[in-house]
Amino acid sequence: MDVDTRLLRSFAAVCEEGQLTAAAARLFVSQPTLTKQIRQLETLLGVELFERSRRGMAPTPAGRALAEYTGAMLAGWDDALRATRAAAAEQVATLRVGFEGGIINLMSRRTVADFTRRMPGWQVELRQNNWFDPTSGLATGEIDLTLWHAPPYLSAQYNVAVLGQERRVAALPAGHRLAARSELSFEDLLDEPFVAIPHEAGHWRDYWLAAHERGGRPVRIGAVAHNTDEWLAAVVCGQGIGFAPETMSRLAARDDVAYRPVRGLSPSQVGLYWPKDRELTPAMAAFVRSCRATVGFGVRS
């Protein structure tokens, strides 16, 4: 029987946290998504893994038996992935860098040229971040660094080389009733339908819906997009509005989309992120220096 390692990671997190809320936050997924994954694993194995109560989730005897092996299995698989990908990268001297859809031009040809000057014989492989993986491939070693517009608290969970700060702006269809204004208030947008990214994006979905600023007020979802092109198309078609990095107003400018600054919406910390348990390699450090030399926007730190 083959079992997706994501299901085992979800199982292990619930065992360790003892409740779905804390485990979901740790995994950067929504609670409904985590619940679905646990039930999927139970269905695959044909056993009940947890006893559910108001106090939380306690492993059943079957769950405790599985938990004895899960940690070692996942650790071994992670080690195998990292070793395999590191060996492949070293063979061709490749640095794998993730980027957010719609803003790839932040890292321009000048950035790559500067990097290859600093690291002769190396090449950069750019990969668009996957909205279905909150870590963008960092957890599995699929990429070495990723560019994120992120909330400041993420610095406690990842290493980060900060490049600057940038405002989050509202993206509205050009014919929207608020598009004629030069600046918007966050309160103006509370009742608007939003174009959301998938639930699997975890904390990123909440961040780009500005859940923190909403103070518990529910958000209306007009559409769900699975990549940047779908997201922008949904905005253009009037299915909802959205928040985006200010950079998109330059790099994805369109006559049928109005980008407007928003009072009351916190800015993003922009930087190159990598896992806490991984040291900065010479190639990674060189790419950070190249970005700082060639990428300019917002308020530099």
Key phrases:
flat; D-Maltodextrin-Binding Protein, domain 2; four-stranded mixed β-sheet; 301 residues; alpha/beta; 38% helix; five-stranded mixed β-sheet
What does this structure look like?
This protein is of the alpha/beta class and 301 residues long. It folds into three domains: 5-82, Orthogonal Bundle (Arc Repressor Mutant, subunit A); 93-165 and 269-294, D-Maltodextrin-Binding Protein, domain 2 (3-Layer(aba) Sandwich); 168-266, Periplasmic binding protein-like II (D-Maltodextrin-Binding Protein, domain 2, 3-Layer(aba) Sandwich). The chain is 38% helix and 24% strand. It contains ten helices and 13 strands. The chain has helices at residues 5-17, 20-27, 31-45, 61-92, 109-118, 203-208, 211-214, 228-236, 248-251, 282-294, and strands at residues 50-53, 56-59, 94-99, 123-128, 145-150, 158-166, 168-173, 184-185, 193-196, 220-224, 242-245, 257-263, 268-275. It is flat, with a radius of gyration of 21 Å. It starts with a helix and ends in a 7-residue tail after the last helix.
